[in-house]
Design a protein that fits this description.
The chain has no helices and nine strands. By secondary structure, the protein is an all-beta fold. Strands 1, 2, 3, 4, 5, 6, 7, 8 and 9 form a nine-stranded antiparallel beta sheet that branches. A hairpin with a 2-residue loop joins strand 2 and strand 3. It is elongated and about 55 Å long.
């Protein structure tokens, strides 16, 4: 995995991952690439917003010739500091309903 992150300014941070994927099942094996990206916004002292996309275009190619795409997952989060050592947070996750879907069969 290769990761990079940067605090752009006092209210914005960004990050990204590139990852090598591998899987094996019985005598078959698969390799591929995956990508993630994230954005964090701090619009006010006590308010935090986060957005992330996981498996953006992530795909595997099996030794059998089968090709498989990972479902993209989009996440959002809102966090609010209400007192010292107390954070109120809410997450939302959107994903494809299938674990994976083929994008090209042999």
């Amino acid at each position: 995995m290769l990761s990079a992150a940067r605090q752009v300014n006092s209210f914005l941070s960004v990050g990204a991952n590139a990852k090598l994927l591998s899987q094996s099942l019985d005598k078959a094996s698969a390799f591929g690439l995956g990508f993630d990206a994230a954005l964090f916004i701090y619009p006010a002292r006590d308010l935090k917003l986060g957005f992330a996309v996981q498996d953006l275009g992530s795909k595997l190619k099996w030794s059998t010739g089968w090709r498989e795409a990972f479902p993209m997952i989009v996440r959002g989060e809102v966090g609010l500091n209400r007192a010292d050592n107390f954070l109120l947070a809410r997450d939302a996750i959107k994903s494809d309903k299938t674990m994976s879907k083929p994008w090209c069969a042999p």
